[in-house]
């Protein structure tokens, strides 16, 4: 494994580790000891890949967006995670983790969700496998992502509102961790991003690495080269970016650009631009970079997109940022909304507002003209129609 992957102690440079209350040691240790062996089993790999193919609809296309390319004077390829079953990349991870939970003998599944995409993806795989499912979601997100709440309920999941703090993703994660502490024996916690104690950041990145694995093969077919010049992805906790970057991490000629949410502006007091504003600290079980006050209180984040509304980033991203391997930038609500509308008008694709942040960064780049750019279109905009309608007054 390269210097950008997790080491045997669960760290990426100075970031990562497993900072959990004693009550959770047995669960986390069981996962640490078993995850790699289980994931490498032939029967696991077969079931994982069969489900990705026949249930999720993979491989997701790599689409050469011609009108969008013309607009920016460069070759733009969209990795169409929006076409996955349930509408986002999140399902890649939940398929993997439900198979892991089954093999660990767990009967009850819990999850946190922001945009609702991970909650829906978790409720979906629980319906698929007939397991009990409880999803924690901030009260504010329950309001702004109503269609996803309905989907989870239809699939038989209980959706529990997190009422503390800013009532968004961070608070939902706190509630889910609390549940796991109280139910350590029969419950598996399906974390939805590359955050949490080791081994979660690594195992989620491995399940999402299918994104870059497919992209390499598809790029050869389309461009004759397996490497693009740039890879762009939005970052909430960082799972679509981790999957999109995974097989390019050691290819130093590929520039990796991660786009965070600047909300109303990086310094407006209402943002989720973690690398711009954050400092080293521990959040949700791992050492990373997070937005915090002088005395270490987590600062409430803000973004129009529920999936990016998180005050931290996964430890691998903290390391890619600190080591200089990745470029970490941010995009405001307004810039993202305009980019979402532009893609819709030029290509007939309505992106999730999270993904629109990645698209918006094209406005800030300059190109020679013959470069290849891959952007992870992490999800579709159906869940965001209400927000688009309110913003543009349709
Ligand atoms: C469509 C979409 N993209 C991106 C994200 C951000 O998550 P991550 O950074 O883990 O990819 C979310 C989270 O809910 C999402 O729904």
UniProtKB/TrEMBL annotation:
Modified residues (N6-(pyridoxal phosphate)lysine): 90
Superkingdom as given in the UniProt entry: Bacteria
Known catalytic reactions: (1S,2R)-1-C-(indol-3-yl)glycerol 3-phosphate + L-serine = D-glyceraldehyde 3-phosphate + L-tryptophan + H2O
CDD domains named among the record's database cross-references: Trp-synth_B
Gene3D superfamilies (alphabetical): 3.40.50.1100
Keywords: Amino-acid biosynthesis, Aromatic amino acid biosynthesis, Lyase, Pyridoxal phosphate, Tryptophan biosynthesis
Cofactor: pyridoxal 5'-phosphate
SUPFAM superfamilies named in the record: Tryptophan synthase beta subunit-like PLP-dependent enzymes
Tryptophan synthase beta chain-like PALP domain residues: 57-379
Pfam families: PALP (PF00291)
Main enzyme class: lyase
Enzyme nomenclature, EC number: 4.2.1.20
InterPro entries: Trp_synth_b_CS (IPR006653), Trp_synth_beta (IPR006654), Trp_synth_beta/beta-like (IPR023026), TrpB-like_PALP (IPR001926), TrpB-like_PALP_sf (IPR036052)
Pathway in which this enzyme or protein is active: Amino-acid biosynthesis; L-tryptophan biosynthesis; L-tryptophan from chorismate: step 5/5
Spans through the membrane: none
Oligomeric and partner information: Tetramer of two alpha and two beta chains.
PANTHER family recorded: TRYPTOPHAN SYNTHASE, TRYPTOPHAN SYNTHASE-RELATED
Biological role: The beta subunit is responsible for the synthesis of L-tryptophan from indole and L-serine.
Family: Belongs to the TrpB family.
Name assigned to this protein: Tryptophan synthase beta chain
The organism of origin for this protein: Sphingobacterium griseoflavum
Source taxonomy: Bacteria, Pseudomonadati, Bacteroidota, Sphingobacteriia, Sphingobacteriales
